[in-house]
Amino acid sequence: MVSSNRDQFTSKIGFILAAAGSAIGLGAIWKFPYTVGTNGGSVFILLFILCTLLIGLPILMSEFLIGRRSQADAVSAFKKEAPGKPWFLAGWLGVIVSALILSFYGVVGGWILSYLFRAVTFQLNGGSEEHYGELFSSLIANPWEVIFAQAMFMFITIFIVQSGIKGGIERAGKWMMPALFIFFILLAIRSLTLDGAMEGVKFMFVPDWSYLNMETLLNALGLAFFSLSVGVGAMITYASYLPKTETITSSAFNVAWMNIAISILAGLVIFPAVFALGYSPAQGPGLVFIILPAVFEQIPMGSVLIIIFFILLLFATLTSSISLLEITVSVFVKDNYEKRRSRAWIVGLVIFLAGIPSALSFGVWSNIFIMDKSIFDFIDYITANVGMPIGALAFSLFVAYYYKTNVTKAELNLPNAGYWLWRTIVCVIAPIAIITISLYNLFA
């Protein structure tokens, strides 16, 4: 029996903004631009949108269904819906994977805080890609700075989560997400007014069909899948706080289009400026930390715009870190809400300590490798390529094959054709896609 005192989102928009924030994160603002840049631009974007709507969205709906129906955390949901069955192990997998992701995510959040501090104090100057490359390398190799910045980022995350759904997570989402949209639109307008900016627009929207191949498709499918934050139980956890009077199908659609919209806006901020100033879009992961500061350096009012950009990046990172921490905290709190504050700080501290090896893996522990990868890269690799796919596969198979048809029909409230399309995807197409992505990432 679900406790009547269980915390809940007070509005559908609050839930949508929180869930969208969980999905957007670094995926939309950090990973999307550099993945687009290294995969030829417009064709990749088209495939990303199609994969998000046709594959990612049905899996997202499945997680929403489990959470809203069970009104329980990612572990208890399976124990309640499938008592006596081992499905709850999928929930525990999600908890472990989310904690591991947050352990290195907090490190990246710390990097962003360090850059934001330098931007606010007008220390981001130098005017060349080489300067910012040296800055980034020196920053991530400094053990005291990276650990202190990681601690500050985790402190902010814990502070929000310990305040609960209404007082913390929903309130943060309601002002962070609109701020993201507004400031991104302003930055995109400024970027589009640069001389030569239309080359960046063409790169994003005029197809170069030579990039239409299996590798681009698999990369787009992988980014769409992971950018929606499915496979770790985050959406099960958030949907468990959604009243049963609210529809989950429309909520899932709203989360999906917001994720696409922020991703496109991020591209419109970055690529017109990159092309206008003569940089290559295929810079890889360093695009945000190395290329963009050099780009803003050459734009009028660039010192102000770079502050806004890193504030946006911090917001996006926080909305994801909040959901990652909430997954674990909700399991240990259950309906015992008077213990939320203490459990949030304990869990957050443990995850912070677990992240220190990742923080040091570019400096004093840079000589330590696991499977030929740094500690940071290994944790990233094992969660993205093993943990998340297994979790998403388990969640989609549970909904597809454990729930009876009349249950999923009633929960989703879709037209008959739409329902059978969704069922075909989660029963057949999504599992094949997940397995294909996993094998490609593991052996490519």
Task: For this entry, give a set of tags.
mainly alpha, single chain, 0% strand, Amino acid/polyamine transporter I
Q: Work out the strand percent.
A: under 5%
Query: What is the helix content?
Result: over 70%
**Got a strand count?**
0
Question: What is the number of domains?
Answer: 1
What topology does this entry show?
Elements: H1 12-38, H2 42-70, H3 76-81, H4 88-120, H5 129-141, H6 143-161, H7 164-192, H8 198-205, H9 214-227, H10 234-239, H11 249-276, H12 291-297, H13 302-333, H14 340-360, H15 375-402, H16 405-412, H17 416-443
Task: Describe, in plain words, how this protein is organized in 3D.
- It comes from Caryophanon tenue.
- The chain crosses the membrane at residues 12-30, 42-66, 87-113, 146-165, 177-197, 217-241, 253-279, 299-332, 344-370, 382-403, 424-443.
- This is Transporter.
- With 444 residues, the protein is mainly alpha-helical.
- The protein has a single domain, classed as Amino acid/polyamine transporter I (Up-down Bundle), CATH 1.20.1740.
- The protein is 76% helix and 0% strand.
- The protein has helices spanning 12-38, 42-70, 76-81, 88-120, 129-141, 143-161, 164-192, 198-205, 214-227, 234-239, 249-276, 291-297, 302-333, 340-360, 375-402, 405-412, 416-443.
- Helix 9 crosses helix 17.
